[in-house]
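Bit of a strange request maybe. I'm writing a small parser for structure token strings and I need a real example to test against, not something I typed by hand. Could someone generate the tokens for this chain?
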Amino acid sequence: MSRAAPGLLAVALLGIVFARVVGAHVEPDGLRVLAATYVRLSPEALTTPNVVTGILLAYRGFDTLGEVAVLFMVAASLGPLLKPIGENGRVPRFTPTEAGEIVETGKVFILPIILTFGAYVVLNGHLSAGGGFQGGAIVASGVMLLLIANPGTPLNVAALSVAESGAGVLFVVLGILGMIFAGGFLDPRFLPQGQLGAFLSAGAIPLISALLGIKVAAELGVVLDRFRS
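Reply from user aminoacidic:
Good idea to test on real output. This should exercise your parser:
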């Protein structure tokens, strides 16, 4: 038997499987019941036109809590995993290098825009596309640009850890308040709903989104510092 026969047989079997999957696919002609319910209830019950934010921060709050916990565990585990070890077990000294003029100039002009845009995405997550996860990641990208332009810039990891932990605790507190005063964990309706489309609306969703933004930005900042060192 040729040495290529097992590979060809595997490719043929995969082709049969994917052909059946593709052949059985039927393009839906409308939203399914659960999706249609989310689309209807997000603006009606949560006063937010951003259905995705309504799902993540209210209807699937436990899922969001789990995702945040996973991100925290990743940031915490990178410390010992990326600990630099040199000869004789000594930590090698980090020697930063200067960035080029283009990177340095780009940092001066782009960094304020990145940080401002990240804050905008976080604060308007209940009104338009975006939210805490996305805005926090954008802010962290600004931190990455800062470290690329100036590798020796000190990051206060202790302060970032305090901000991350505090945001996580307040996130759970808001979830519990939703259980006590509304319909369940992270139910944002324990605060005034406001009018659909208004900046001050959607109950506690803007607060939850802001806490997520702080938590994600702080955790990613710690991750970047781990890689930098």
